[in-house]
Amino acid sequence: MPSLSPALASNELTVLANTSDQGRDSRSIVSSHTFMQRFEDSTVLITETLGERFVKLLTKDGKIERVFWAFEESILRVWTFINYPDASLEGKISQAQLAFLDQFPELECDFTVIYRFDKHFDDLRPVGSILAFEQQ
Questions:
Q1: For residues 21 and 56, which has the higher predicted lDDT (pLDDT)?
Q2: pLDDT digits over 85-120, tens only?
């Protein structure tokens, strides 16, 4: 398998995949911006962030206002903002969280739903987080 350049490997978490493609060794490289799938004979760069992957799993409900994410040490943290508590919507958010964990069982994740209660996002945005979704 080709080696990673020091620049590529510096801020990334290497995750061994549980599956292989036709018996080839596969590794996932997870960073704060992209993830890669590596095989012995090729490298595929996927330019979708983990945050975007989580957003795709969420229900298309206008009550979900924003999603932020960040790596803190080796933990992927995801914050989903809604304005007020909504048990039905939170159930759908939980389903997306479980589906994400099924897709990335090797990641340690921490999911949080934040009720905004009409406060401005600037007052609530997690420090160092990346915006993955914003309701238009």
A1: 56
A2: 999 999 999 999 999 999 988 889 999 999 999 999
Strand segments (E) across the chain? 12-16, 26-31, 35-39, 42-46, 64-72, 75-82, 108-115, 130-134
Question: Which residue type occupies 16?
Answer: L
Residue 133's identity, in one-letter code, is F
Strand order in the sheet with 130-134: 108-115, 75-82, 64-72, 130-134
Q: How far is C-alpha 132 from the chain's CA centre? A: 9
- Torsional class of 93: left (φ above 0), alpha (ψ -120 to 50), beta (otherwise): alpha
Cα 26 to Cα 37: distance, rounded to the nearest angstrom: 7
Instruction: Express each pLDDT in 59-69 by its tens digit.
Output: 889 999 999 99
Report the number of secondary-structure helices (H) and strands (E) in the chain. 3, 8
> Residue 67's pLDDT is what?
95
